Amino acid sequence: MPILVGDTPAIVSVRIVANNGSDPLVLCYVHYKGIAPTAVTEELQEIGLYDNAYDRAVCA
After folding, report:
1. Residue 23 above 70 pLDDT?
2. Each residue of 22-35: b (16+ CB within 10 Å) or e?
3. CA-to-CA distance for 50 and 4, rounded, in angstroms?
4. How confident is the model at residue 56 (pLDDT cuts 50, 70, 90)?
5. To the nearest whole percent, how much of the chain has pLDDT over 90?
6. What ranges make up the beta strands (E) of 1-60?
7. How many CA atoms lie within 13 A of 12 on its CB side?
8. For 7, phi and psi rounded to 5 degrees?
9. Which pTM does this prediction carry?
10. Continuous segment of H or E residues that includes residue 28
11. Can you tell me the distance from the alpha carbon of 54 to that of 2, in angstroms, rounded to the nearest whole number?
C-alpha cells in the first residue's frame, strides 16, 4: 500500500473541509497508509490549543 506523509498545513486544510460535511481523509485512508512525522503531531497538538477554525479542524 502506498504511504501518504502528511504535513501540518495539509492535514489542517483537509480537516477544515471535513468539518464542512465531506471527509477527504476517509478516501486517503482507503488508498494510502497515512503517517505524520513527530514534528507534525506536535504542531497539530499546539494548534489544537487555539480557539479558532484551525483548532476545531485539528480536534475533530
Report:
1. yes
2. eeebeeeeeeeeee
3. 27
4. low
5. 5
6. 3-5, 33-35
7. 17
8. -105, 165
9. 0.63
10. helix 24-31
11. 28
